[in-house]
Design goal:
The structure holds two protein chains of two kinds. Helix content of chain A is 25%, strand content 29%. Chain A is α/β, with parallel strands linked by helices. In chain A, the strands form two sheets. In chain A, strands 7-6-5-8-4-1-2-3-9 form a nine-stranded mixed β-sheet, sandwiched between helices. A five-stranded parallel β-sheet of chain A has the order 12-11-13-14-15. The radius of gyration of chain A is 21 Å and the shape is elongated. Classes of the chains: A alpha/beta, B alpha/beta.
Amino acid sequence: MSSVAILIETIDGVVPKSAGELATFAKRMGEVTAVMVGGDCSSQLTNYSIDSLVQVDGVDVSKFGVPAYVDAIAAVIAAKNCDVLLVTSGARGKEIAGRVAVRTNSGVITDAIDIDSEKIATQSIFGGSTTVHSQVTTPLAIFTMRSNSVEIVEGACATSVEKLSATPSTATLKAEVLALEPLVKGGRPELTEAAIVVSGGRGTNGDFSAVEAFADSLGAAVGASRAATDAGWYPHSHQVGQTGKTVSPSLYVACGISGAIQHRAGMQTSKMIVAINKDPEAPIFELADYGVVGDLFAVLPSATAAISARK
Amino acid sequence: MKIAVCVKQVPDSWAEKKMVNGSLDRAGVDAVLNDLDEYAVEEALKIIEAHSPTGEAGEGSGHSITLITMGPDRASEALRKGLSMGADSAIHISDSALAGADSLLTSHVLAEAIKSGNFDLVLCGTESTDARMSVVPAMIAERLGWAQLTFAGSVVVDPAATKVEISRVTEIGAEKMQAQFPAVISVVEKINEPRYPSFKGIMAAKKKSIEVKALADLGLSATPAWSNVKDATPRPARAAGLKVEDSGNGGSDLVNYLAEKRVI
């Protein structure tokens, strides 16, 4: 039975649902210790399977970022004798995992989509074209888990919070955050966490209104192809594909996207794919479960109306 | 200023990638300089140009850019590309013991090469388009004990004050960060528009030196892997499903299909 530490990251004080996914994966392997750095957010964890809650003080993650998280986690791993660390795959999460791996001389596997009780991780690599099973061979095994990869299994959470003090290392204090400008939330879910993603490409001709309206009718996130972000039609942070975000929602709707291999790399592990494109020969149709050959400016508004009619 | 730029040769994005014996088969595919590293080379050039008396990088600038790569012999092609963009020299760590190296070993080797160069700044792309881990820059910072300024959407360097400021762009927002030299910086795509090598640049690159080093030259020896691949299976290609022509009710038919499949 393993002792598994999971890192609870918050964005603006809010615990994302990926924390529940980490707890779900961790519980398969053994005892779960949730690591909170900075504030106590345990009131948001009550539905998850967590055996102990540790709140680490002494390091300032809002001022020193990634290395401060590493100082905190290293302290918990030492105190609790953990043999597994799970972190959510994100820009920050992967950096934290990588640095903990260096500091503890441990193996790290990133972007896992599954992990079993024997600590064997599943990854979907090369843009979803190959499935790999791998394991870490060091005493501490570190994994970053891609959001949205598992159905959360709820459970009982510890009620008492243990406090632990960590000391920042010298290197941690070398780079300082002077100011944070939070992302402007448009009221839509985060791209990599959304259950449904509606994306627009070259076919939108720069007009994303129909794509956004359909996305909003489904409570979906909005994505964009590289052609659309390169043209400046949609923010780069919404790019889906090889050099953008990788998404794996239960439904992906590609509108006016031809389906270049770089785009496929970011979405082909979606559970269901729908394509809307004027060109019947567009390669996106090769992987679509359902394809509509037609003008997105005609199809999307009528689909949006049909969704509204069902509500 | 002495700037190092870490670059990697990767399979062309269009190439079909396969796993052989637990690692990526690199031999049978076209290889290019990692797209995202071009932004790092360009940013290094822009930093130098902003502080060069001639407005240009190169010998007269009083500053230098050294490319560092780890990879098989042919990785020198990727170095030539960076040199033809305007970098001054290159270090190529090539050793058969490094085949299939993971991020821990890669960061270790790169950090050792950086240590021997007395650099002020190290620039990297945010990730390689083959492995896509985006952990190596942070790992290098951890190994060197230097400031980590990664995912930079903008970089402003003040050489007189030996200070650098970036805007770190991630899923949590934009963080303004600052550090003294030395620092490890990774730059995001779209921070700049990488230049195409000029004819003059391509010709000049042929004369620039690439220093080839083996592991032993860095005082290192091969280490056992920290993780291993148990199996790798190509995922069955997705089969195309239904394809319907929109004749007025394509939208409502789509919604009916989604409702039938219970995805909405």
